[in-house]
Amino acid sequence: CNSAHEVSKTLATNNAIIHWLHCHSLLPRLKQMPAVKLSEEWAVDEAIMEEDGRIVCIRFGRQNDPMCDLQDLAIDNIADSMKDIAVFYSVDLDDCPEYIRSYDLYDPCTLMFFFKRKHVLVETMHGRDNKVIDVIEDPSRLRKLLLGIMERVTIG
Q1: Cβ-proximal residues to 71 (8 Å cutoff; 6+ apart), any chain
Q2: Is the pTM of this model over 0.90?
Q3: Looking only at Cα atoms, what is the longest distance across the chain?
Q4: Mind listing the pLDDT tens digit for each residue in 86-124?
Q5: H helices within the chain, ranges in order?
Q6: pLDDT digits over 22-31, tens only?
Q7: What is the DSSP string of 1-37?
Q8: Distance from the CA of 144 to the CA of which of 43, 71, 75, 121 falls in 20 to 30 A?
Q9: Rounded to an integer, what distance in angstroms lies between the CA atom of residue 148 and that of residue 130?
Q10: What is the C-alpha separation between 31 and 75, in angstroms, rounded?
Q11: Cβ–Cβ < 8 Å for 135, 14
């Protein structure tokens, strides 16, 4: 479990990275999200219900939140190479506030995974859960998580 000091230090580092990217005009170029932005409840539900063969990965958060920006960069980095097993969406909680209550979304950035219309439980440092509340900045770690989910849901 991370101490409050470690969490504060990590957040400061993440914010410094975002600030540096903004100052060097890199963030706008890096933020060309392959993740489709969903801004209506029916669109989120349809994305979950319509996809039959790939993992549906939804990043819930708020637009321009530094934590979401970091998560989106990692998603951008792997989206094309993972397109056969996963589809990525982002949902701004200001556009779809009903998901805050229904999915208990109280963290700045949350990843949720669905497969064949059902939540996928994932192993996190907080135990087994239906969401990841820690930002996965490392694209290889995110790729590994998605491959593990696909293996688990296809094998049973």
Answers
A1: 59, 61, 109, 111, 135, 136, 137
A2: no
A3: 47
A4: 999 999 999 999 999 999 998 999 999 999 999 998 877
A5: 4-23, 27-30, 41-50, 66-79, 98-102, 139-155
A6: 444 444 444 4
A7: ---HHHHHHHHHHHHHHHHHHHHTT-HHHHT--SSEE
A8: 43
A9: 14
A10: 10
A11: yes
